[in-house]
Amino acid sequence: MTLDFxxxxxxxxxxxxxxxxxxxxxxxxxxxxxxxxxxxxxAVIIFAKTPIxxxxxAAYDILIEVGRSVLVLLVVDPVPDETPYREKLQRILxxxxxxxxxxxxxxxxxxxxFREFAxxxxxxxxxxxxxxxxxxxxxxxxxRIPFRVGAVDRELEQVESFINGKRTIAEIMDLMGxxxxxxxxxxxxxxxxxxxxxxxxxxxxxILRRIGCQNIILDRLRSQYGKALEDLMAKFDGNAKIVxxxxxxxxxxxxxxxxxxxxxxxxxxxxxxxx
Length: 275
Description:
Layout: E1 8-15, E2 21-26, H1 34-47, E3 54-56, E4 61-66, E5 70-76, H2 83-105, H3 118-124, E6 134-138, H4 150-162, H5 169-175, H6 180-192, E7 196-200, E8 207-210, H7 215-225, H8 227-235, E9 237-241, H9 242-248, H10 253-265, E10 269-271
Antiparallel strand pairs: 1-2, 1-5, 3-4, 4-5, 6-7, 8-9, 8-10
Helix pairs in contact: 3-6, 4-6, 5-6
């Protein structure tokens, strides 16, 4: 049975002695306050000492894995097979016990030291599945990433330095020294908090059409590329494939591809999607 990341709603790490939530990661909106869910589970598992691993509600399930120092709680839409989710929860539990078990048993009330562990959680449960052929593009209107601290911040900066609007996710993974799972987790974080969006790389079979981009942009491109730009723009009428256009013009094909991508990037050409 495969795991569907879109069904994940919320993950929390709760200290066994005391019941404090040391890390919370929301994945989707919940009709119930996640803190209430965590408090309910804490009461059932920690104080009632009840060996329950699954709590079923009308709209969601709560999957629980319990360790010596901490329990891991996953709120998920009802799934036909819990096994792949529990395997990942167990890996998270083993890792947090290994890295932070001693600190959790001698807890001093500061949960900030556990924020970096969010990357371990997201490595197991990315915010979204990734299409490796998609191209991430930076945005300027992202929202604050609550666990962007320490090593997480450094690794996010590394990934961001490789995002140039031209490389696919697969190409970024090949270039970086991080593990593939880490890169996918970091990219999913940037997407979740709206620091990047994705576009599909153009193929020779794509059909483009002219759209009304700003005159100042067109004038600048005309000054750089002259007649080649005019000839190229004239060919894209919403019916011709890129391959047919590039073969019909007496210019270097690599140069034409560069210019086509540039025109799409600045909003002068747009892909015609099949209806």
